[in-house]
Amino acid sequence: MSAAEGPLVVGVDTSTQSTKALVVDAATGEVVASGQAPHSVSSGAGRESDPRQWWDALCEALRQCGDAAHEAAAVSIGGQQHGLVTLDGRGEPVRPALLWNDVRSAPQARRLVEELGGPKAWADRTGSVPGASFTVTKWAWLAEHEPESIRATKAVRLPHDYLTERLTGQGTTDRGDASGTGWWASGTETYDAETLAHVGLDPALLPRVVRPGEVAGTVRDSHDLPFSKGTLVAPGTGDNAAAALGLGLRPGTPVLSLGTSGTVYAVSRRRPTDPTGTVAGFADAHGDWLPLACTLNCTLAVDRIAALLSLDREAVEPGGSATLLPYLDGERTPNLPNASGLLHGLRHDTTAGHLLQAAYDGAVHALLGALDLVLDEDADRTSPLLLIGGGARGTAWQQTVRRLSGRPVQVPQARELVALGAAAQAAGLLTGEDPASVARRWHTAAGPVLEAVERDQETLERITGVLSDAAPLLERATGNTPRA
Asked: Is 81 among the annotated ligand-binding positions?
């Protein structure tokens, strides 16, 4: 048996590339066991994964956790947002899931915005103006390109919903993940009948939205997971909402997450409605809101530039006149789904290190440009910016964010914040606490603070100018970009 002080809980992060599981002491936040297993994602124009891989990866990650997972009293699943999972009458995938970073549905996104009242109407109704990442656009793409898959679909789920249902046998989701679909109305916190009718999606195919703090179900006995029958299952949520729980965020604290995608977000008491589409008006996982801006191209794009230059990712050089917009997979912020990478300003004295620094600058510029829109007007613009995700430990990332933001930067020592947030949600079921309060009790946000430096306004303005001047090029479709 574990020597933990309190009951054990399991938090899961099923991300784009892998599934991670943590067994956590609910009393102290100590991670007593962990496991991880990879997924594969298709390449090319589409980004797809077989959901059964996620289940196999969860089983393997829990196997690596050993006996501690079997002792757990509650479990919660945090997962990649937006992905479209279509299931047949037996609960098996009709086809591979369309992932959040599959931008083939960009034409459908544009049409849906136009057909249902324009950007402001969408923002007022759902909190967001849907881009190609949103689930509703993927359903519209599937209806147009694979009507046979639509006819075979008897249930529609998000990635975290799929795993939760495999545990409990019940189709459930939560408000945080539902708010990224495009068919959940943030004003009424219900599925939007008009949107569903327009895209031909029967609401009976959708999961029940479980409220914060509610038990989604219990672990059934018809599976091979090392959980006891009757173990409590929390609602789970999307990855960003789970990370917000994992940090114990209070309203107004800004977060910049450096992962496969880059995001900036903050908890807010006010329901967001940005008609420009820059800020997605997501719900969070405990009753408030999580206005968020996301870029498709972050650590993966910068690492690709480093590889092309045969440089270590830390081998940046200051100075130089080059501007590099690393839009290698299209882009979401700014909304340029057909864009490709762009390099401008080469000189004889430009070095490879200058180019790599320019890639960092281009990625961070997009995120910081949305930060003021994410924060409420009364938020403290001088408080530390929490830097999380895979890139947060990198010196080049830290210094680029620090220089271009002009803010102090705090790097939490806790890792795997999505899984920790899910664990805090599971712990809340046992203790009756708000999961964010659980995470604060665990001190998950503690970490060193890098003092503020003067903001590099010259670089920011140069990138903004190139982006504006290059708009016609960036909006032009190329041979490898999605088409209707």
From this structure: yes
Residue corresponding to tokens 């440089």 = 311
Question: Does 365 show up as a binding residue in the annotation?
Answer: no
Residues 21/12, Cβ–Cβ less than 8 Å: yes
Entry pTM: 0.88
* 95 in Cβ contact with 44 (< 8 Å): no
Pick from 404, 388, 262: which is nearest to 333 by CA? 262
Nearest-angstrom CA–CA distance, 305 and 302: 5
Beta-carbon neighbour count of residue 337 at 10 Å? 24
Say how far apart CA 4 and CA 29 lie, in whole Å. 10
Query: Which segments within 135-180 are labelled E, that is strand?
Result: 155-157, 172-174
Whose CA is closest to 418, among 27, 29, 66, 80? 80
For residue 338, what are the CA distances in angstroms to 169, 311, 358, 480? Answer: 40, 28, 21, 9
Pairing outcome for strands 208-210 and 172-174: parallel
State the number of CA atoms in the 13 A half-sphere of 22 facing the CB. Answer: 24
- Residue whose C-alpha is closest to residue 13's, from 292, 413, 430, 415: 415
Given the residues 239, 274, 288, 361, select the one marked as catalytic: 239
Nearest to 99 by CA among 152, 144, 150, 162: 162
pLDDT digits (tens, 9 = 90+) for 105-131: 999 999 999 999 999 999 999 999 999
Containing H/E element for 290? strand 289-295
| 239 in active site | yes
pLDDT digits (tens, 9 = 90+) for 323-378: 999 999 888 888 888 899 999 999 999 999 999 999 999 999 999 988 888 988 87
DSSP string, 120-136: HHHHHHHSS---TTSHH
Q: Per-residue DSSP letters for 216-283?
A: -EE--SSS--SS-TT-EE---EEHHHHHHHHHTPPTT--EEEESSSEEEE--BSSPP--TTSSSEEEE
Q: How far is CA 469 from the centre of its chain?
A: 30
Alpha-carbon gap, residue 151 to 159, rounded angstroms:
21
Q: Which residues contact 102 (CB under 8 A, 6 or more apart)?
A: 46, 47, 48, 132, 138
